[in-house]
Design a protein that fits this description.
The protein has 58 residues and is α+β, with helices and mostly antiparallel strands. 24% of the residues lie in helices and 36% in strands. The chain is built from 1 helix and 3 strands; from the N terminus they run αβββ. Strands 1-2-3 form a 3-stranded antiparallel sheet, with no helix packed on it.
Length: 58
């Protein structure tokens, strides 16, 4: 699989998915993720989001 085919597959999957964190405890919150690809396979995913809406009130 060429690098272009890998990128096309990755971005097709990325566009098809909703990148919000959904829980029963709080409204959906946006997330950002970084993926590392080796030999056409995702080997690592790093996710960042603001956890404040998920914390209990003071």
């Amino acid at each position: 699989m060429s690098a272009i085919e890998i990128a096309e597959r990755y971005f097709a999957a990325w566009r098809a998915n909703d990148f919000d964190l959904h829980t029963a405890a709080a409204p959906a919150c946006p997330v950002a993720n970084w993926t590392h690809v080796e030999n056409g396979r995702i080997t690592r995913v790093r996710v960042a989001f603001d956890p404040r809406p998920l914390q209990p009130p003071d």
